[in-house]
Amino acid sequence: MTRRIVIAGNWKMNKTVPEAVELAKAVVAQAAEAPASVDLVVCPTFVCLTEVAKVVAGTRVALGAQDLHWEESGAFTGKISASMLVSAGVKYVIIGHSEQRQFFGETDETVNKKTKQALKHGLLPIVCIGELLSEREAGQTDAVNERQLKGAYAGISAEDAAKTVIAYEPVWAIGTGKVATVEQAQDAQAFIRKVLVELYGSEVAEIIPIQYGGSMKPDNAKGLLAQKDIDGGLIGGAALKAGDFLGIAAGAA
Ligand code: PGA
């Protein structure tokens, strides 16, 4: 089995419902430009999911959410469950984004619970990991990624792990315009794959797509996507323009 290339747009807290519908329509209209080997995913906010689901239904663009809660249902004000996402037509779910970790108390433990819950409901997790600038400068990049990865996948079987996507996002590159060099990204991602081999064996490690994320743009995508262990991208800012988003996907050709 060859690994897939997954290009996912993380729209973050952007776009009202009509704006999200408009952007989704533009992505769908240009999706044919993306190489056939690429899986395209758009991840709007929760309130936009059902409307965007209608736009992407029956197209090659899949729907993703930006988070979920690990409980089935109940008294968890403000939270969204896996079955709600499934019922809205969601296929992928971003878990453990660095903004959730930095601002909303996400830990390796909650990432693990969310990943298990997503898998239980047939959602495909996009598990985000990545080091802070201070951690990179202290030479801890690999150690941080290993800790976050092992935390996220604790107790998850190889069969389930094979359904996941990993997003390596160096936190210092997110929204800063400061993209990692291809060497920095490839080195970190090769190490992540090595940890996956240790956890699940090489067969499973070889099929899990590892995305790069952090200031990815059409002009730097090609070099990044040409790397052996870079299997797509998690795109923030550039995903808010359909042309840029598809321009990044074109880099996977
Ligand atoms: P960016 O965000 O592309 O705007 O840097 C990426 C992300 O946070 O997923």
What features would you describe in this structure?
It is a single chain. The protein is globular and about 45 Å long. Helix 11 links the parallel strand 7 (210-213) and strand 8. It is 43% helix and 15% strand. The protein has 253 residues and is an alpha/beta fold. Helix 1 packs parallel to helix 12, helix 7 (141-152) crosses helix 9 and helix 11 (218-225) packs parallel to helix 12. It has an eight-stranded parallel barrel, surrounded by seven helices. The mean pLDDT is 97. The two termini are 19 Å apart. It binds 2-phosphoglycolic acid.
Concise structural overview:
By secondary structure, this protein is α/β, with parallel strands linked by helices.
CATH architecture verdict: Alpha-Beta Barrel
- Global outline: globular
The average pLDDT score comes to: 97
Poorly predicted runs of 5 or more residues:
none
Which class of secondary structure composition applies to the elements? alpha/beta
List the helices and strands and how they pair.
Layout: E1 5-10, H1 17-30, E2 38-43, H2 49-56, E3 61-65, H3 82-87, E4 92-95, H4 98-103, H5 108-120, E5 124-129, H6 133-137, H7 141-152, H8 158-161, E6 165-168, H9 182-200, H10 202-207, E7 210-213, H11 218-225, E8 232-235, H12 242-250
Parallel strand pairs: 1-2, 1-8, 2-3, 3-4, 4-5, 5-6, 6-7, 7-8
Helix pairs in contact: 1-2, 1-12, 5-7, 7-9, 11-12
2-phosphoglycolic acid is lined by residues 10, 169, 174-175, 213-216, 234-238.
